[in-house]
């Protein structure tokens, strides 16, 4: 059995909504590591005393780019796992804060799709992803355009899992067992 990982152009339907699973609980470590890796040293994200004493939130807020990155990654198995290219992020809105310990969930709706004008083996899907926490509170909304292959593109390049090698029998493994 092969698990779905992304979709071909033909599999997208305008209006379809894909609920991404599982959710991701954001830990303080995750947030701090992302901030440090990306050189975002704003005290709102890293300094508990600063956040408690001087902000309206009273605690650290998860850096928005990490929230976006989690949701984008969460959508890959349903949306862009077969993508040829991410073409554009046309909008990105952080509409409520995410805090350490929150669990993020996401879902993506197909807004539109169209065939490529320059190559007949691909198309573009226009999608909107919303991310929300364990209480259902929407925290992030973004729209993007993704170039995805048509079935003909996938067939020409090896099918559902292009580039995947076959296991080779040797002295440690004789090959598939005969039934």
UniProtKB/TrEMBL annotation:
Pfam families named among the record's database cross-references: MC_hydratase
Region (Disordered): 153-179
Domain of life: Bacteria
Gene3D superfamilies per the UniProt record, alphabetical: Hotdog Thioesterase (3.10.129.10)
Residue runs in coiled coils: none
CDD domains according to UniProt: FkbR2
SUPFAM superfamilies linked to this entry: Thioesterase/thiol ester dehydrase-isomerase
InterPro entries listed in its UniProt record: HotDog_dom_sf, MC_hydratase, MCH/BMMD
GO molecular function: lyase activity
Protein name: L-erythro-3-methylmalyl-CoA dehydratase
Organism: Nocardioides psychrotolerans
């Amino acid at each position: 059995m092969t698990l779905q990982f992304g979709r071909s152009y033909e599999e997208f339907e305008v209006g379809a909504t894909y609920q991404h699973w599982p959710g991701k609980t954001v830990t303080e470590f995750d947030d701090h590591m992302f901030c440090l890796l990306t050189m975002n040293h704003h005290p709102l994200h890293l300094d508990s005393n600063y956040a408690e004493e001087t902000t309206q939130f009273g605690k650290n807020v998860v850096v928005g780019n990490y929230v976006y990155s989690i949701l984008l990654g969460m959508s890959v198995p349903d949306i862009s796992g077969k993508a040829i290219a991410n073409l554009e992020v046309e909008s990105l809105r952080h509409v409520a804060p995410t805090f350490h310990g929150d669990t993020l969930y996401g879902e993506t709706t197909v807004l539109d799709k169209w065939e490529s004008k320059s190559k007949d083996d691909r198309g573009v899907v226009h999608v909107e992803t919303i991310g929300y926490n364990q209480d259902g509170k929407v925290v992030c909304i973004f729209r993007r355009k993704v170039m995805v292959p048509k079935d003909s593109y996938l067939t020409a390049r090896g099918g559902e899992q292009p580039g995947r090698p076959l296991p080779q029998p040797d002295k440690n493994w004789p090959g598939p067992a005969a039934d």
